[in-house]
Design brief:
single chain, 0% strand
């Protein structure tokens, strides 16, 4: 049988050593819980939305605009429309969808 020793009266347990990896913030969160939207776009669509179209350098996001009135003013100033573009043609079925199976 193993019993724990009782601490002597008036003693305080010592804190863990400073080099304990459990206390290091980098070890607590090795992977981020979320990914930036630009990284998700690059992974899903293989499109780097932050690549500069002129030089290929990396751009940064200064702000996001979500207010429709502000978006309308910016697009009007640029001479662009808020209306949706042409609709995509309807998707067609796979050429193998109706093929007889062997």
């Amino acid at each position: 049988m193993v019993a724990r020793a009782e601490p002597e009266a008036g003693t305080v347990p010592s804190p863990p050593p400073a080099d304990d990896p459990r206390d290091d913030a980098t070890h607590r969160r090795a992977r981020p819980k979320y990914r930036a939207w630009a990284d998700l776009m690059r992974r899903a669509f293989e499109a780097d939305v932050l690549a500069c179209p002129k030089c290929g350098g990396r751009m940064i996001v200064l702000a996001t605009i979500e207010d429709p009135a502000v978006i309308r003013r910016i697009l009007t100033h640029l001479g662009l429309s808020m209306e949706a573009g042409e609709a995509l043609p309807p998707a067609r079925a796979s050429p193998w969808a109706d093929s007889p199976s062997e």
